[in-house]
Specification:
alpha/beta, TIM Barrel, 8-stranded parallel β-barrel
Amino acid sequence: MKTILLSLIITLAAATANAERNPFFVFDNGLRDENLKTIDAQLNLVKETGFAGLSWRTDEPDRVKQVLNGAKQRGMKMFVMYCDLNLKDGKLVHDTRLKEIIELCKGTDTIIWPNMLSKQFKNSDPAGDDIAVAGLRDLADLCAANGLRIAIYPHVNFWVHRVEDALRVAKKVNRKNVGVTFNLCHALLDGAEARIPALIEEAAPYLFVATINGADSGASKITEVDRIIQTLDKGTYDVGAVLKKLKAVGFRGPIGLQCYNIKGDPKALLPGSMAAWRKMSGALQ
């Protein structure tokens, strides 16, 4: 009897440790389908598939509140809130709804997840840094007042084009609640496949969020997005090696499943990605 109890305690402890490290969430772009038109339907699928929660995007505050409350009721959470920040006319401009959304997220530990784009500055151009830093410090103060963090989201062909840009800006902002995101698909689209372990290591002190997806090794062009963003159970690229590196640098934050432009029924596709995640993450225990 004692042996059985000890075994159960060890199993529960391992499960708890695993749950605390790297909760796995799904991008809301993986929940769009004719049969998933309501927020409740989307949240139900997230729960049924086994994800810890989901991302959301800048939306009407009432809808954001519905996502926050609906996720909580199902024992999940909204891990990140995606938004656009635009370097324009000497200012960092954002959607007017963002302030109210941040206040709605108070106490939820949701991470504000901004991409940063500009027509004024070329991709990766540090000439825009002063504008970005000033605007991000203001946003960081608002987030800090609500107990939230910011993880800059690198996006190919945006001003913050790569994770190196996000790091440069985050270091200059110099706020404890401002960090970066490592996006596997955007690193691959940037042709950085060989440098991914080094990029993760460089980002580690500022890394708040990571995202993964299935992909083909050797695909590195924007025209090959279908090969670079696949379900997690597809592709020749070794995503398990990315998870191993994230573990090696001590990353314990949330990891998201990128689903952009993946065709098909989410109810049929997401279980395969979840099975792949469980296999990959289980191999790291």
